[in-house]
Amino acid sequence: MNQPFPISELGASAVDVDIRNIGLSYGTNHVLKGITLHIRPGEFFAFLGPSGCGKTTLLRLIAGFNEADGGEVLIGGQDVSHLPPWKRDVGMVFQSYALWPHMTVRRNVSFGLEERKVPRAEVDRRVAAALELVGLAHLADRRPSQLSGGQQQRVAVARTIAIEPKVLLLDEPLSNLDAKMRVQVRRELRDLQQRLGLTTIFVTHDQEEANTICDRIAVMNDGVVQQVGTPMELYEKPANLFVANFLGTANILPGRVVREGGQRFFDIDGGVRVPIPAHVVVPEGAKLVFRPQHASLTRGGAGDVLLPGTIVHSEFLGSTLRYVVRIGAAEVSIDTPFHSGETLHQTGSAVEVSLSLRSVLWLAI
Amino acid sequence: MAGATTAGRAHVPSASSRHFLRLSATPGQIALALGIIVFLALFLIVPVGTVIYVAFTEKGTGEFTLVNFLDFARTDLFIRSFWNSVYVSAMSVVVASVFALPLAYITTRFEFRGAMLIQTLGFLPLIMPPFVGAVAMLLLFGRNGTVNLLLDEWFGIKIPFMEGLNGVIFVQAVHYFPFILINLSAALRNIDRSMEEAAQNLGSSGFRLFRRIVFPLAMPGYIAGASLVFVKVFDDLATPLLLNVKDMLAPQAYLRVTSIGIADPMGYVISVVLICMSVLAMWISARAMRGKDYATVQRGGGGLAKRRMRPWESVLAYAAVLLILLLVLAPHIGLLLLSFATIWSFSPLPDAFTLAHYGRVFGESFVYVKNTLLYASIAGLIDVVLGTAIAYLVLRTKLIGREWLDWAATAALAIPGVVLGIGYLRTFYGVQLPDGTPLATLWITIVLALAIRRLPYALRACYAALQQISVSLEEAAENLGATKVRTVRRVVLPLMAGGILAGFVTSFATAAVELSATLMLVQSNADAPLAYGLYVFMQSAAGRGPGAALGVIAVLLVAVCTFASHMIIEKSQKAKGAGR
């Protein structure tokens, strides 16, 4: 796998993908609603969302398997909206890998080059290089059914990059692998993408997968892009409650904003009042949102507020302790680091939750 | 097929017109569908429609009338024929069940050596025309046949196996029992072990367990096989004719058209009655099956528990199986003996043996073999081409009304061969080629009739093959640059190959021994297929030796072709590994 891949010029010619106001519906079922996204050249980009959010539909639309009701898809500046799949030059790795069982690994990989009428010698060279790149050169004459899941996945990738596509599309490529393989393969995918500098779009419902390998993520729900950003941006500054909840655990406390003598307060439903820092913008109907690790059961520093509550559950997770605490009408999760010799708080015991107001988010929707 | 979706970039369709584009298909697909429609209309819908039209119109004036049906109801011969046909069909189902039930039960429920062999031998009767077996059965079971001669000598009794309708029932039951065996065995194998274990766990065992659990679960499979047997027997023409039984419906239709003439309406009325009975039997079968797709085998499960037999059970089972196998293979055994016999009359076995019949057949009658190979191959080819095309259009395109192609092709199942034959004669006799020969006299008409008759079977095989291919395999090919046509060629067809070949073999093997439609359509000996030659030979006492030799050749021919293709399919499956 150390050999330089002969199509290294790809990186220089990486293209962008411009999705403009794409809509798609089946009858009255609106699957995609006005999607607009710009994916930069050479970027590893993820469509992240729960099943049924439209992420796979959007990916298949870029590949040409779905036709939009309106809007355009531009790849490297060229409008491909009305091109059939075989003229688009976007390589797709299918969730099921879709390796042809009647062909050997070598024939699978050479297929796309043969369809492009590439001269035989060139085909052989590029097939060998692609298989070398994924470390499967020694299995070229096997049938797909004789390979393990991870090997099949690599053949699917080799088959796709052999045609030197403008864009690489990955449709949940890790979902058919076991947990250990998944971690290994996602690192390999990231390495490969970095080396080729290939614009790549990755569809997943797993936030950890998206976070670990992608440059930027578009979080989708219900056919709408909720937010676009780097994994850290999305985690630190979610645009709405859906994104906050979908990326990591979020505690959400409903309540209402009240004013008293020029000072704003947030009355959490069920009784407790929290002061709102002066410079913070709080939208209409906002809820108080914080991550489990931004609160603790030990008294914190200045600027922290104390919320009285009752322990509902306590779980030992190894490096951390997780408590579920009832505050007013809501339940929140709180993670504290585990120190040797520490004992768990008993269920039902009264505690004070110390919350750092600097890390609190105010989200309305 | 390519090109339709490559609308130019200057073309900016409105949302509604693009919506239409998505529902529709490429010009190539539309052309393909139109071609299939024209073929089915010309060779299935129009001929059958003509038959129905003639039955309901007054001769000469062409006005609508029911008087032909009144005539049918007032004629004793027809009413008697109708009830005879119903009786023979029903009794054939009963006798065939007697053969099939023990074989199916013993081979699926017990550890039984040779179970595979029995299931394979069970298929054998299907690859010989039933009327060919009829002659051999006469020699073995007739009034002066082997069995009765021996019975008379030992016990002084004779059993009328082959007298009148008994003979038809016996021959048909022996010939068609595999349909019940195959369906019932499959149904029994599909019952999950846990079904039985759950019943045992709740306190049921023995016969009660069989009656309350196993039997109801296997019932849909049995009904499917039984209704098929009923339809086949009801439609069969040559067996009663050869056994000299004329007062049944299908023979009556044939005799009216051939002896009184193509203009006589009664042949058409009988045809309509035959169609109605077919549809009725299939409807009953479909109703019995509805909502009862009891494939209960679960992951890791493996059919009913097979029990080891006790010694006395074992003896009993082997004896029963052996007896049944002897019975159902009697036509083959008899035919083989007859083909080598010098004279075989009023004696348990032939007087002496000779190869002369084979010599004669190879000398004179090889044209039949050649014709059969030609006709059955072309018919099989037409069937798999149409079957693959219809399956592709139905499963892989969004063509509006594509299901109708499937339904129309499958409707051929309900059309008896004799009806199709009459329809072809009536429809195509008037159509003349430039030189004046009627279209109906050309041998290609026979091929087309065979193709239409066998299309439903080939279609199901192709359909199943395509259904097993994941759509993503095709999308992957398109994604890597293959057009629709290229994708079909490089991915779809190679993966369907096994199913297509299986469809071809089914069409070929059954078309090779088919007679009911061809009997009507054969105009000269030079154009006749094997089954027709057999029929001609078997009608005279002197022709039986050569006829039997020809029959043996037919059976071997079909058996070899079936076996060869079976091997090819096995090999290609193995080459694909565990893949789809």
UniProtKB/TrEMBL annotation, chain A:
Cellular compartments annotated: Cell inner membrane
Alphabetized SMART domains for the sequence: AAA (SM00382)
UniProt keyword terms in alphabetical order: ATP-binding, Nucleotide-binding, Transport
GO MF term (any one): ABC-type transporter activity
Keyword ATP-binding (UniProt): yes
Pfam families, per database record: ABC_tran, TOBE_2
Domain ABC transporter: from-to ranges: 17-247
Annotated GO CC locations: ATP-binding cassette (ABC) transporter complex
InterPro entries with a match to the protein in the record: AAA+_ATPase, ABC_SmlMolc_Importer, ABC_transporter-like_ATP-bd, ABC_transporter-like_CS, Mo/tungstate-bd_C_term_dom, P-loop_NTPase, Transp-assoc_OB_typ2
Highest rank taxon of the organism: Bacteria
Signal peptide segment: none
Gene3D superfamilies per UniProt: 2.40.50.100, P-loop containing nucleotide triphosphate hydrolases
Membrane topology summary: Peripheral membrane protein
Family annotation (PANTHER family): SPERMIDINE/PUTRESCINE IMPORT ATP-BINDING PROTEIN POTA, SPERMIDINE_PUTRESCINE IMPORT ATP-BINDING PROTEIN POTA
Family note: Belongs to the ABC transporter superfamily.
Name of the protein described by the UniProt record: Iron(III) transport system ATP-binding protein
Automatic annotation (TrEMBL), chain B:
Region forming the signal peptide: none
Subcellular location field: Cell inner membrane; Cell membrane
GO biological process: transmembrane transport
Domain (ABC transmembrane type-1): residue spans on this chain: 82-281, 369-565
InterPro entries assigned: MetI-like (IPR000515), MetI-like_sf (IPR035906)
Record carries keyword tRNA processing: no
GO CC, alphabetical: plasma membrane
Keywords: Cell inner membrane, Cell membrane, Membrane, Transmembrane, Transmembrane helix, Transport
Transmembrane segments: 30-56, 86-106, 118-141, 169-188, 209-231, 266-284, 315-344, 373-395, 407-425, 437-455, 491-513, 548-569
Highest rank taxon of the organism: Bacteria
Similarity annotation: Belongs to the binding-protein-dependent transport system permease family.
Name the UniProt record assigns to this protein: Iron(III) transport system permease protein
Lineage: Bacteria, Pseudomonadati, Pseudomonadota, Alphaproteobacteria, Hyphomicrobiales
